[in-house]
Amino acid sequence: MDYFVYNNDEANNIVEMYFAGLKKDLSHLNNSDEISIILTGSLARSEGTWRLINGKVELISDIEFIVLVSDNKNKEGIRSAIDNYNANFQFFSNPFF
Questions:
Q1: Where does residue 50 rank: exposed (0-12), middle (13-18), buried (19+ CB within 10 A)?
Q2: Dist. CA 19–CA 27, nearest whole Å
């Protein structure tokens, strides 16, 4: 999927890697059978933006999403896991993440 107004494979890969890792982290936490991540905002509309800084792709758009689970047993654990994942995801230099 192309997430950006001006397509860039590296920028698209950053988004794909972000969600692959997030899904992996959340699947270990959630005891329910189903988990869904719904992308919203500019990336969902293929209107995301990026820039090159010293030859490296940097996302300008934030990654907005909603996480749905089939039960609500571990809501705080899921929220905490997302916060921890965001703190450790290495491709973000944007302070709004």
A1: buried
A2: 12
- What's the pLDDT tens digit per position in 45-55? 999 999 999 99
Tokens found for residue 12: 């698209």
The model carries a pTM of: 0.83
What CA–CA distance (Å, rounded) separates 5 from 42?
9
Residue 96: C-alpha distances to residues 35, 42, 49, 51 (Å): 25, 15, 14, 16
Q: Which of 34, 27, 37, 31 is nearest to 63 (CA)?
A: 37
Q: Give SS3 for 8.
A: coil
